[in-house]
Amino acid sequence: MLFQRKKQRGMVSAIVAAGGSSQRMGENKLLMELYGIPVLARTLLTLDGCREIDEIILVCREEDMGDYLALTEDYSIQKIKTIAVGGKTRQQSVFAGVRAASEDAAYYCIHDGARPLASRQVIAGVLEAAQREGAATAAVKAKDTIKIAGPDGFILSTPDRDSLYLTQTPQVFEASLYREAMEAALAAGKEYTDDCQLVEAIGRRVYLAGGDYANIKLTTPEDQIVAEALLEYAGE
């Protein structure tokens, strides 16, 4: 039964966005080491070890291609299909990854290269939700009270925290749905900050699957300290 269900779900292409400039880090954050293993290697090793993932498309800046190719070889990443050159924005880079994916991909699993602590359990859970609902994202409930501010810096309102979630990656979509949303965004000249928003723009709902507070995105120098503390807590 498990084998049949796996065959029915269709091919899953993981698209890893690794094209950022790392300006806030001061160095290439994806090559920084967490306990001796580069951030990007940790991300790719997790995806490579997920039986639900069939191929990996790594999207990066042209100047980083040599380093990242060497990294995939050094860590024996088996599912790499290709390394594609990204665009000026995250959205353009993900679109480049979609174009480089296999034509028979049934789902796109879009993930940040700078989220090295995403667990296989979270990835599998989001994939399962997307296969059921058509679109899903990892997400966790907001812990802090969120304020909406005006341009003058004063608080305008305080939304109910019980309805607020912080989205993470992976974000998984039926391939046909994502391509429809992609074409609509291109036609309208729209840029979105995440792929859920892209799909929401064409009127489709995205399911909030379980995320993990440890699934942080490395953006600023202190994030490296937090990531290493989380790894130590997990016993690595």
Strand order of the largest sheet: 5-4-1-6-10-7-11
The helix content, as a percent range, equals 25-40%
What is the end-to-end distance?
35 Å
CATH homologous superfamily title: Spore Coat Polysaccharide Biosynthesis Protein SpsA, Chain A
The CATH architecture name reads: Alpha-Beta Complex
Radius of gyration over C-alpha positions, nearest whole angstrom: 18 Å
CATH topology: Spore Coat Polysaccharide Biosynthesis Protein SpsA, Chain A
The number of helices is 8
Q: Largest beta sheet, briefly?
A: 7 strands, mixed
Low-confidence stretches: 1-7
**Total domain modules:** 1
Overall pLDDT: 94
Strand content: 15-25%
**Element-level helix/strand string:** HEEEHEHEHEHEEEEHHEH
Outline: globular
Tally of DSSP β-strands: 11
Could you name the CATH class? Alpha Beta
Keywords: Isoprene biosynthesis, Nucleotidyltransferase, Transferase
Catalytic activity: 2-C-methyl-D-erythritol 4-phosphate + CTP + H(+) = 4-CDP-2-C-methyl-D-erythritol + diphosphate
Organism: uncultured Anaerotruncus sp
Family: Belongs to the IspD/TarI cytidylyltransferase family. IspD subfamily.
List the topology elements.
Layout: H1 2-9, E1 11-18, E2 33-34, E3 37-38, H2 39-48, E4 55-60, H3 65-74, E5 80-85, H4 90-100, E6 105-112, H5 120-133, E7 135-141, E8 148-149, E9 155-157, E10 165-174, H6 175-188, H7 195-200, E11 207-210, H8 221-233
Enzyme class: transferase
Catalytic activity: 2-C-methyl-D-erythritol 4-phosphate + CTP + H(+) = 4-CDP-2-C-methyl-D-erythritol + diphosphate
Site (Transition state stabilizer): 24, 29
